[in-house]
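Quick note —
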Amino acid sequence: MTAVTTNPAPGAPPTAPPTAAAAAAARLAQIKSALADGTWPPSARPSKPHPAAPVPGVAPSVAPGPAAVLNPRPIPVPSPPTPPTPATSPPAGAVSPPSTEDRTAAAPALFLSAVAAARSEVGETMPLRPTSAPRPVRSRAAEAPAPPQAAAPPLVVAAAVASAGSSSTARTAVLEPVEVLVDEPTASDTTVQLAPQPPPAEPYLADRFPGPSQTLSAIEARAVSAWFGKHKVLEQVSLTMPPGQVTALIGPSGCGKSTFLRILNRMHELISGAALAGAVLLDGSDIYDRGHKIQDARKDIGMVFQRPNPFPAMSIYDNVLAGLKLTGRKAGRDTRDHIVERSLTSAGLWGEVKDRLRQPGGSLSGGQQQRLCIARALAVKPKVLLMDEPCSALDPTSTRVIEETMIELQREVTIVIVTHNMQQAQRVSQQCAFFLAAQGSPGVIIEHGDTDAVFNFPRDQRTLDYVTGRFG
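Predicted structure written out below.
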């Protein structure tokens, strides 16, 4: 650092040289004054000796004021580059003073350069803060953090410092890099916008009911023929009804659908003069075998008829338990209560009658009576449930409830239903068989298989005509 000298007044006691901070402050004040009166920068005009410097033949002057006056040294600062000189400009070497507008426009930049040079002269560094980018707008959406930026290299400012009576020497002021603070999204001010989740899909009706409590059974008819006296009503009917599914029997009236259904649980033999041939297999065992009891067959294969037939004098509670009494099964009070609740729940009736179980079964509506008959059939835990047009005498609302009950029950029992409603067959069944009897001929199965295939892609033209309503 270059020493700073002062000119003491005559007769005044010698004083200590000013500190570096005071010298820098005084120098800055002089630079501001020079900028104000247009005498800065000194490189733009001929050099003049400082008034405080000794001039030959002139006595040194002492300005009033403080005892010590700084002896400033001019600090040449490079001027900004000028545009190319036009052809009419003065010859090279001539110095033209800058205009007032140029000095005014360049004053801020020149002032900053002068401040840097002055601080460099007194041995201080100039901690300039680089101009940072505009503050980013915080986004509420989560974004991947930007990769870390490489550290900015130190800024170097070169200033030529000229000492009085000595040649100019180049000094360098190293400006420390300043960290630019940029807002980064944090966990506290970032909200992750998740796509709205759709509401959970409503489960199918069959999924609302608990799993089967027993092994599901299949029932199969093999070459079944039936007669009423000498009149043959069925001819060599063979059909397999898969376990855990609803099989719909469709066809016009008089083709033998209900007769076939009664044969499946040995009710056909109760009619005087009735006869049959063939076999009905439940889990591979022929229910018409001489060693198979008729009570066991009807317990394993329940039946619900076209018209509701509850016992009108019995209470709802006793109607459900009637099947247990007929089969000779005994149970305690708690067991009976459990059977009643389970059966009515499976039939979709528990919520409607749980507070009036001691009322007569005949006091219920038609749809409720039909569901009571279903609960009575379910009380003995059948393997197969036969339903002969169970909704033909019911209103649409009760029909919908019975259909929902069938869809739920198919996870617990194998269901075979006779219906004249084509839409109902499509809604509730997985398998379908089309019965048809020509004039004066016994009924036969024209086509059977998957319900969708039978209704949408029938193999027989007669099936297509019937499901599309051309006859029947």
